[in-house]
Write a structure and sequence with these properties.
Blueprint: E1 8-15, E2 18-25, H1 32-37, H2 54-64, E3 68-73, E4 79-86, E5 107-111, H3 115-127, E6 131-135, H4 138-147, E7 152-156, H5 164-174, E8 179-184, E9 202-205, H6 210-215
Helix pairs in contact: 2-3, 4-5
């Protein structure tokens, strides 16, 4: 944010029932379009040097603690990021209220060996009102499927030991009615016809947005 150096100011204040931590830099700032997309998973302005997951993961952490993040920025005038968290003396809601709950909730298992990606997917689906569990590997996922029922399994394609295709085949052999969604950064190289004709019901390419992953939970009409 500050390629030529600069200053960062950190301020902690009380804002009603919330504690507010505000970070202000003197950097390059961002356009309205970039600011609106700042928390979108995999969105980055850093090219190959960025994953686009830092702010998305931060948003998930704050959201789980019933807080919120606010961003103010203009090109050439720096950026201010405010994190508001409930004070210990303030009543905390039992569960965060999803902004747009789905027509129905499903039980989902997210499988990914990358912690950041897995956490983002779990947060996105949980915020939509789904019951979400997660696994760090294909073998761990199969154990989860063996032990309980899942309506949908969302699995990364490229994982060590057991890739997404192998996970999909195992899931279908044990629970044929479970919907399997494959998430991959190589979607452009995969024949779209493979979705729905084999062990995988849908294929999602990275980067993806909230609507794409939410829609994949259900069979399209």
């Amino acid at each position: 944010a500050m390629p030529g150096g600069g200053a960062i100011e950190i301020e902690v204040t009380s804002a009603g029932d919330y504690a507010k931590v505000r970070f202000v830099d003197s950097g390059t700032g961002m356009s309205d379009d970039v600011r609106r997309r700042a928390f979108e998973p995999f969105f980055t302005t850093k090219g190959v040097n960025g994953t686009g997951l830092g702010l998305a993961v931060s948003y998930g952490i704050v959201n789980r603690h019933h807080g919120r993040i606010e961003v103010e920025s203009q090109p050439g005038q720096g950026t201010a990021v405010s994190i508001l968290l409930p004070r210990a003396t303030a009543p905390v809601p039992a569960e965060p209220r999803p902004a747009a709950p789905p027509a129905r909730s499903v039980r989902v298992l997210v499988v990914d060996d990358e912690d950041a990606v897995r956490d983002v997917l779990v947060d996105m689906l949980a915020s939509a009102g789904h019951d979400v569990s997660s696994s760090r590997s294909g073998l761990e996922a199969i154990e989860e499927v063996r032990a309980g029922h899942f309506d949908v399994v969302v699995t990364d394609l490229s994982m060590p030991g057991m890739d997404g295709w192998a996970v999909a085949r195992e899931v279908k052999s044990r629970a044929p009615g479970t919907r399997v969604v494959l998430v991959t950064g190589y979607a452009a190289t995969i024949d779209p016809g493979l979705a729905g004709s084999g062990p995988v019901d849908a294929i999602i390419g990275k980067p993806f947005d909230f609507a794409t992953i939410s829609d994949a939970m259900f069979e399209s009409n």
